Amino acid sequence: MRFDHEINFYTEESKRYNPLTSQSDGGTKLVASAMGNVTDVGADRTVKLFGSIVQGVKVIRLVEPVNQVWAYLMIDDSPTKYRMRTTTVPLKNVTILVGEDIGKA
Question: N or C: which end of the chain has fewer CB within 10 A?
Answer without folding.
Answer: C
